[in-house]
Amino acid sequence: MPGVFAVYRWELRKLRAQKRTYLGLGAAALIPLVFVVALVTHGGKPEDVAFGRYVHQTGLAIPLVLLLFGSIWMFPLITALVAGDIVAAEDRHDTLKTILTRSAERHQIFAAKTLAACSYAILAIAITGAVALVAGILASGFNPITSLSGTRVSAPHGLGLVGASLLVYLLPILAIASIALLLSTAFRNSGAAIVGTLMFSLLLQLVDILPGLSGLHPYLLSTQFNAWQGFLRTPADWAPVIRAVWVCALYAIPALVTAGLVFLRRDVAGE
Amino acid sequence: MPNGAALDGAAPIEVRALSKRYGRVVAVDGVDLTIEAGDVFGYLGPNGAGKTTSLRMMLGLIRPSAGSVRIFGRDPQLSVTALEGVAGFVEAPCFYPYLSGRRNLELCAALDGLHSAVVTRIDEVLDTVGLAERAKDKVRGYSHGMRQRLGIASALLRRPRLLVLDEPTTGLDPAGMRDMRELVRDLATRGITVLLSSHLLAEVDELCNRVAIIRHGRIAYEGSLAELRRTAGLSYRLRTTDDQRAGTILAERGDITHVGTDSGGVLTFKVVDEPVVGDLSRALAHAGAGVLELSPRHATLEDLFFQLTEDGSGAPGDRVAEVAGAAH
Ligand SMILES: Nc1ncnc2c1ncn2[C@@H]1O[C@H](COP(=O)(O)OP(=O)(O)OP(=O)(O)O)[C@@H](O)[C@H]1O
Ligand SMILES: [Mg+2]
Q: Is the pTM of this model over 0.80?
């Protein structure tokens, strides 16, 4: 019997051989580049988002603006592009019968796919973060940044906070990946899974702005995309970060468990 | 461990009261089969009879609605360890189109828990199926027959004791068919048990020592083709100078059954045993009906197959008798 790690390595190899992986990672790299180029060539700045007015003062503001901007649909889409396809692709190619008649148990294959989809999502965020930082620092310099509480944070310290923010940002991203994986397993169709994940993400944002539902606000997945802002206060506010941990788990774990059960029990009967 | 080591001496495949329904369609309906070690077992049936569905259940790909499957004594529903020493595919074998043939085999080997030592093994099986030259190309560009060959290669990679093949010659060119049959024969002589589903009688006749014929999800016949032929072979045609009298004599005899006439108005009947025919010819002569023709009718396998698989009701038990009777 192979270990989950061996199956995971092959899932990564499969991702490396597919165009959509490069499409997603390419978008993750290109969007910060385009953003920085536009800032440099056109001068203006996005005034209405947090840190938007600092984009010409310090490169550290660039990744933070992108995190705010990307949560609406860009990162959910990049995540779902692979997570929503990773099980459905097996249905598309009818390859489940090929891999399930070897010596790997279904739960191993599912675990490997989950890990691979999460690895990809982490890589995508890391690429956006790295490209945004490098391009931002080249364009606007490695200068101190003003926190949300109005205090100046030194550039090296600010860099650490950007890193921490990216890590916290991964929590809702991985929850989105789990939901995409569930839809991929349930629908057996990657288009439906990707669109479904985006719809879900947009729906939560709609719920967020509906009057009378503001009590739900702290528990919406969309809200957790802003949890990292807790780090950019002085002193750091850990409450939204801690809430993001368990709220995201509340979305991700049931989705993964359901997806896993469906995958373990399903018939592999072709289309 | 609930699905522990394979039971010593357990049959490669033992299927009991196996059923699968899809909504209103009963794809497999109470199938019992035992495939013994060393068998080359033909699983025959027309389109939609339930062959693929049965094989999917044997490989643990779908859950039976009722009944049980044991592979070397173990239940493939519980754990994939039941498939240890088992290889094969259902319908057309499928691979990742964006990987090369060789990569796909490497993936299969990794999922088998094999390590780098398999490199030579992969070359070996690629050679066996004649794909060595195209192994570096993406499967996307493979023809149907090449994919079929890759399927065989991936099965051989597991060094199976039991090989399950679902219509493996479909879509192969004549040379491919010949190679495939030679391969099956070769594997069989090495003691590998083979379950081969097919709707090609000639293929099954050539390769298999035992067959089951499935129709509408039920087993219509199980045994050897020779036996099926023999049972059906004891049918006769009779023309005499006085057919009316001959007909009466036939009807009176207890050891003669299925008396009737064929489309040309010629008398037909069936006997349980050849000596009865000798007796009959004497009785006819004695009664003054000169024998013009008294000839055995060998039903072709095709006839038998159609008789068994087309229409008709009745328990599988009478099917053979009916076939033999109908083979005039
Ligand atoms: N996934 C499915 N959903 C619904 N019905 C199915 C499914 N798979 C098979 N069936 C039905 O079950 C019956 C048996 O199909 P199966 O594929 O087992 O036949 P087969 O003997 O392999 O036929 P063929 O020779 O054409 O391959 C058919 O009536 C088919 O329509
Ligand atoms: Mg079939």
A: yes
